[in-house]
Amino acid sequence: MNLRQLRYVVATADHGTMTSAAQALYVAQPALSRAVRELERELGVELFARSGRGVVLTAVGEQVVRQARIALEAVEAIEALAVTGGDGRAAELRVATTPALEAELTGWLIPRFARERLAARIRVVRCPGREAVVAALRAGRADLALTDLPVPGDLAAHPVDHREVVLVSPPGLKLREPLPPAALDGMRLVLPARGGPRRAELDAVLARAGASPVPAVESDDRETWLDRVRDGTGCLLWYRNQLEDTHGLVVRSFTPPLSRMVGLVHPYRRLSPAARDFLTFAKDAARERRGGDGRVREHT
């Protein structure tokens, strides 16, 4: 018997189906079912009985779940002592990310979390790319990570932001709608400055699309990007939800869509209370940031 089995049994009792329990715990449903069956064999009792599409506790199952809750509450209390170091001071929560996404953490998410959770201490683990982020999580050097999705299947992912990449072009330019990514090959584009995180983001998108455009302008001055499109210098490749005034210009989608999904990621293991709190907070903050019209609001 182990704590993982007890958590799975309690979650199944709470959610009524093993599928729902697995989703709530961010584990694969077959793994949860197997762990519950192993516990039943070990104890020599049946904990759940079929009821329609779900399951219900047997009489002995109710007793087991009652005691399991007591055991898990004791474990939670011990974990809480570890999080505060036993002296009331918050333990360190380590969040890994890449240079392109670090501003998402340090610019608005972490400061807001720290204001609302005064005891929180967060350290950003800087990684050169997504592969290094994955390595940091697997090695235990980080508790959570903010990174581009998808990630390998041994990591749980929680999407927090979906960004559609679109092409902004002058009205007289004859292009298909929607546009195949191959049309970007050789196209003159207004791009962020080479070597910066914004350029790294778009270079990754272009690499996935297999396209090699021609840089017409390379600048991090976002205020001038649309002006360069209007004067015919080149087209702009950017995120739809971060475009402001495109009056008089044409905004085209791609087929297949070009997009970037960003999420919080962690290994399939029990998170510390601080990590769980940050994960819940970040998802709520991301929904609020998108707002009712889906546009990302800038936070300072």
Automatic annotation (TrEMBL):
The keyword Transcription appears for this protein: yes
One Gene Ontology term, aspect cellular component: protein-DNA complex
Domain HTH lysR-type intervals: 1-58
Any one GO molecular-function label of the UniProt entry: DNA binding
Pfam families reported in the protein's UniProt record: HTH_1, LysR_substrate
Domain of life assignment: Bacteria
Family, similarity comment: Belongs to the LysR transcriptional regulatory family.
Protein's recorded name: DNA-binding transcriptional LysR family regulator
Species classification: Bacteria, Bacillati, Actinomycetota, Actinomycetes, Streptosporangiales
